[in-house]
Each structure stands twice: as structure tokens, then as C-alpha cells.
Amino acid sequence: MAAQPDPLGLTQPAWEQLALEWGLPRYRGRQIFDWLHRRLVRDYDLASDLPAALRERLDRELPIRRPEILRRETSDDGSVKLGLGLADGALIEAVYMPGEARDSLANEFEDARAVPGEAAGGRREAKSMPLVPKFTICLSSQTGCAVDCAFCVTGRLGAGRNLSAGEILGQLQAVLREVDRTYEGMRLVFMGMGEPLLNLEGLLPALEILFEMVAPRRVTVSTSGITPALAKLAALPRRPNLAVSINAAEESIRTRLMPITRTYPLRELIAAMRAWPLEPRRRILVEYVLIAGVNDSVEDAARLSRLLRGLTAKINIIPLNEDATYLPGWKRPGEAGIDRFAKELVAAHWPVTVRRSRGPDAAAACGQLKGRTQDPRRARLTPASRS
């Protein structure tokens, strides 16, 4: 017997096809999709324009299962780190970050060198108050990560399984409900647990569904550089923003930090980035985790500038989020070192930002809350009470 599909992971065309298979008009599929994703209903009973018999069948044959929030940590800045339990007991993490995009984890596309009040091209933008406060949600795509970057807590916790499209969308809906928000004002980033491009089976339908409600410009997918999958993502008719974790311009240092470099060499990754189709006013985001004594010298910055030459890109410097338990010996550079690195890149005419971690007191770096909630050496989840 075939497994039942996850209703949250069905695209609108898939719902329309299912409606036809059930002997219903095609528009019933669109209605169900709208109730689940645009209106974010908790259950089918609230879908008031569906016949009662259809609602009962949906509830019986395609029950809605969203992740359960097992742990909630709130930072002084309003950021919220959530630990969510899936149906099989696996634990994932998501982060909610309130405020203007320029203050959040994922505002990666404004020119840091622009004069305040001016756009990147020198055009002065009209000042206006946003009607809806902006916020960012950071999602996970896997329950662990096999890429094993040396600076990443999730990598220390080990590999896990892929999330389905329904689990990805359920994760998002659970966070929105928890913080009492809708899609208005939202930016979404796949920068949580896992490597999104190792889960195209879950990521691509999730993006297709998301783009029915959210503009692709408001969604960012971050990758360590899975080159073949990057080409598949580039071929989509609607593409998210692309963020690539580089972290070193020298092959040997990057291999030390990111063992995936042995499989997907840096030169091939840069070639794939050059081939990425960019719409007007969009850039590739280059993420660079800055680690004291490893990749933070002025010479490292100069090598990075040469490596990226010719790309339409922005560089986001991310000072290491230290973790004495999972990242022993790794240190965040001091402010003077961070400034020196950034100024070298700005002098070479790169748009640069320095990410100031949101919610450090809430363990907001990916993997940290899971690390405190679930010992990776144990097979079972240790439930945590909500605070």
C-alpha cells in the first residue's frame, strides 16, 4: 500500500490532480491549497467553503501533522530559538528574528557601503514607515548535517535525515503560529540545520509552494557548495536568492574547514557561481565565517577578493559563534581584527556586511539548542519543557 502524501507538501497542481482523482472539480484542489497555505488554517474544519463530507475525508485520509514545539528560548533582542519535534521523534531548530531586515541574520542584499538613505546605485530612496514590521525566519532542511564543517555545531552533532517538503512547510507554519505572524513582512532563509542542496527532493517542492505566497526575492537558500545541485537550482523558472558559504579562498584552508571541498573543489564552485543567472538588482551572497588565527588575516581577505573577481556578489562576514562544548579551541576574532578584514574588502570595492548574531543568549546558532536538548550519542530525544 502506497504511503499517504503529506498534505502540507502537496503543490497546488498536485492538489488539483488529487481533486480530479477524487471525482471533484479541479478548483476544489485550489481551495484546499489556499486554506492550508495562504490562510494557514489549523485543521480542515475551518475550511468553511468545503463540503462537510470532503472535510471529513481529508481529515481521515490526509491528516495535517505539524511539528510540535518542544523548547522555546527568547533572547533579549526578541529573537526566538525554537526546538521542534517531528513525528518520528527527530528534533530540528528554527529561529525567529524580529525587526528590520538590515538588523537580521538574513539581510544580505543591501549595499553596506551606500550612504544612509541612498540605494546602492546612488539613488535616494523615499523614507517611509513599513506598514507591517519586518522579520526573518531561519529554517532547517535536515535533522543533522553530513557536510561536517569544522566550525558548525550541527556538523558536530552528525548526519541526520532529509526533511520532506511537508515537514519544511509545517516547520514554517509552526513558527508563524508561535510568534503570531503571517507572511507579511517575512524574509525566509534556509540557513538552519542541514545542507539544503543535499535535499532537493524536499527543498524544490517546498520552494514551489512558498513562491505562491512569498516573492522569490524574500527567500534565500544557503549552501556549502554542492555543485551539481546548484545547477539544478539555477534551472528553476523562479529562483531564490543564493548564499554560498566560502570561508576560505585557499583550497587547503577551505578543505580543513569544509571537508566537502574534496568532493566539490573551490574552482568548480566558483564556476557554478559565475553561471548562476541573476535578475537585475540581485547579487550572490558570499558567507564567510571568520575564525581567529585561521582565515582572518588581511592576506586572507585579499585572496578572497581575487577569488571572487568578476562576480556580482556581496560578502557577509560572520564572526564565529563560539561553543566551548562542540567547537573547543575555535575563537571569534576581536573587533579590531574583524574591522581590518572588512576594510580590506571594502577597499577592493566589495559590498560588505558583518553579521552581528541575533539572540546569542538564546543559543541562536544552528545546532546549539539541539545540542543542549539532545545528546548526539543517544538514540532518543529527551523532551524539554517549554519555557
How would you characterize this protein structure?
With 387 residues, this protein is α/β, with parallel strands linked by helices. It has helices spanning 12-21, 26-38, 52-61, 153-157, 165-179, 200-210, 227-234, 251-257, 266-275, 298-307, 335-347, 368-373, and strands at residues 68-74, 80-85, 91-98, 135-138, 186-190, 219-223, 241-245, 284-290, 313-319, 352-354. A 10-stranded mixed beta sheet has the order 1-2-3-4-5-6-7-8-9-10. Helix 6 links the parallel strand 5 (186-190) and strand 6. Helix 10 (298-307) runs parallel beside helix 11 (335-347). The chain is elongated, with a radius of gyration of 21 Å. The two termini are 41 Å apart.
Strand order within the widest beta sheet: 1-2-3-4-5-6-7-8-9-10
Termini, distance in Å? Answer: 41 Å
Write down the secondary-structure element order: HHHEEEEHHEHEHEHHEHEHEH
Q: Overall pLDDT, averaged?
A: 85
Gross geometry: elongated
DSSP strand content? 5-15%
Instruction: Report the total helices.
Output: 12
Instruction: Give the biggest sheet.
Output: 10 strands, mixed
How many beta strands in the DSSP annotation? 10
Low-confidence stretches: 101-128, 358-387
Radius of gyration (CA) equals 21 Å
* Helix-and-strand structural type: alpha/beta
